[in-house]
Design brief:
The protein is α/β, with parallel strands linked by helices. The protein has 14 helices and 26 strands.
Length: 528
């Protein structure tokens, strides 16, 4: 089973039904298959080799999803890029993934040019103009082909690679050294989760499914292939409204969505502004979240106002493909209730282990590990990091299995559910993004106006959840004026979701008994 088989199988049954919508732009299953087949043929004609990476330097549109399918059919591996991230970071990811091609569209062309200015070597990578708009770009390196060129290709159902263990995509996440890590996701990884989720959530042909997350974020993988697997219609949420409570509320209502899947922060924004309309969302059946803890007041607001909707909490890192566990909240939780991350999805296994990799007793907190068919084969082109995170482990039956250390603390309680107890390392989840605080500090370290600094998680009550705080000591006189300049410099080095929310200047950062910066004390100061 390959990820392009789902939409291909729907052509005979539901060919004329709309598969993807974005505003006034729609594509049905027949044309989705036709155009992705033609793209695969165009790639093969150019000498494209199986296993080659292709960078998607594009906005989330129906044409981008056509590109994903066409690349897969030609045997390639697509790498979604956040082209709105700082050009320096995008250039790092492109260099790391070593793509054979870059796909560029009219939304991203100026960002593409900016990246070329950062690293002229990127200008030697062949690229494709994947837009119907006229290309107004004079350069010594013209595109290999244009979107309109695929019209000359025959509608052949290409399937160059039929190995479900082959890589389908590489998703880059934050790295503690400042270098993003590429998580390799196979066709089998995606198939395992999607087949389970479509069955569990009872997704049916003709349903209307949201796609809120950006393509470089693993939640979108379920939105896209879950819709194709069930024969549903996928509604792409325009990025310009993704954090606008009023517009998001209208989007859910006007499109009669049956399923919503996002990080909790998007739902918290709607709750904060009480954006659920008086009549609720009559068509909504399921609300699913993943990526971080859903603040309890926001969850209570949603469940009280939508009593007939199924609310499901999912948990899982990118390394385990979308999610590894689930818990459907049975009723409006009481104040101070603890929502579990639940039980393992089919094909997955969650383990709570001590420092010797032995199971801890029920109720005790230990390190959370994951094994199973959703587990990534590792990090792209980085065996050292792969070996450190993906461990060979002998289970209770004496056989060996590979387990992934999530870096999260958890406990298995007497009710049979697993509960999350925060991070054990230097990583947080904020606004749904997994963030290595070390990457922020690495960017701060390039500033000559700082003597010392520390970036810490800040836990706020209510809707806000986990935020980021930066404590610093400047090289000049302490006056509090440095923070705006620091924020401005960071915007050119890291994405906006990594920029600290809170700033505090110190004469000297507090130390603990071993002389290290007392991060807990700093976090407490921000939280007070």
């Amino acid at each position: 089973m390959m990820i392009y088989d789902w939409s291909r199988e729907k052509v005979e049954k539901y060919g004329t039904r709309i598969a993807i919508s974005l505003g006034d732009e729609h594509i049905n299953y027949v044309n989705l298959e036709l155009e992705s087949n033609r793209l695969a043929g165009q790639l093969i004609q150019t000498g494209f080799k199986p296993g080659s990476r292709v960078g998607l330097f594009m906005e989330k549109t129906p044409k981008t999803l056509i590109a994903m399918l066409g690349i897969s059919k030609a045997g390639g591996v697509y790498v979604p890029l956040d082209f709105k991230s700082p050009a320096e970071r995008v250039a790092k990811i492109i260099r790391s993934s070593d793509p054979a091609l870059l796909f560029v569209d009219n939304h991203s062309i100026h960002h593409f040019q900016d990246s070329l200015h950062i690293d002229s070597e990127l200008g030697h990578i062949p690229w494709v103009w994947w837009s119907k708009n006229e290309l107004k770009y004079a350069d010594d390196n013209p595109p290999v082909f244009n979107y309109d060129d695929i019209k000359s290709q025959l509608n052949i159902p290409h399937e160059v690679v039929r190995d479900e263990n082959a890589a389908a995509q590489i998703l880059f996440t934050s790295g503690s050294t400042g270098e993003p890590k590429g998580v390799v996701i196979t066709h089998k990884n995606i198939k395992t989760f999607v087949n389970w989720a479509v069955h569990f959530f009872k997704m049916r042909a003709g349903e209307r499914i949201s796609c809120h997350s950006p393509l470089h974020f693993d939640l979108s993988t379920f939105d896209i292939y879950g819709a194709f697997a069930s024969g549903s219609r996928l509604f792409l949420v325009p990025p310009e409204i993704s954090l606008n409570p009023k517009q998001l509320s209208h989007f859910i209502l006007d499109n009669n969505l049956n399923q919503w899947f996002s990080v909790p922060s998007a739902l918290s924004y709607l709750a904060m502004f009480k954006a659920i309309p008086p009549g609720g969302f009559p068509s909504l059946k399921r609300m699913i979240w993943c990526g971080e803890v859903f603040p309890l007041p926001a969850l209570q607001y949603w469940m009280k106002n939508l009593p007939d909707v199924q609310f499901t909490n999912m948990y899982g890192p990118t390394e385990a493909t979308i999610a590894s566990s689930y818990y459907t909240v049975p009723e409006v939780p009481e104040d101070f209730a603890e929502i579990p991350i639940g039980t393992a999805c089919e094909g997955e296994k969650l383990l709570v282990l001590d420092e010797n990799l032995d199971p801890v007793k029920k109720g005790e907190v230990g390190d959370l590990f994951i094994s199973g068919e959703g587990l990534s084969p590792g990090y792209w082109n980085d065996q050292e990091k792969t070996d450190a995170a993906f461990i060979h482990h002998k289970n209770g039956k004496g056989s060996s299995e590979i387990i992934y250390k999530t870096g999260d603390l958890a406990s298995l309680k007497k009710d049979g559910f697993i509960y999350f107890h925060g991070r054990s390392d230097y990583q947080i989840k904020s606004r749904g993004y997994r963030i290595e605080l070390g990457e922020i500090e690495a960017a701060l370290g390039q500033n000559e106006f700082l003597r010392e600094y520390a970036v810490v998680p800040v836990l706020k009550n209510g809707f806000e959840g986990t935020a980021i705080g930066c404590a610093y000591v400047g090289t000049g006189v302490m006056n509090g004026d440095l923070a705006p300049d620091l924020k401005k410099k960071l915007t050119g080095k890291i994405p906006g979701y990594m920029i600290p929310h809170y700033w505090q200047e110190y004469e000297q950062l507090p130390r603990n008994g071993n002389g290290k910066i007392d991060r807990r004390k700093l976090a407490d100061a921000f939280e007070s």
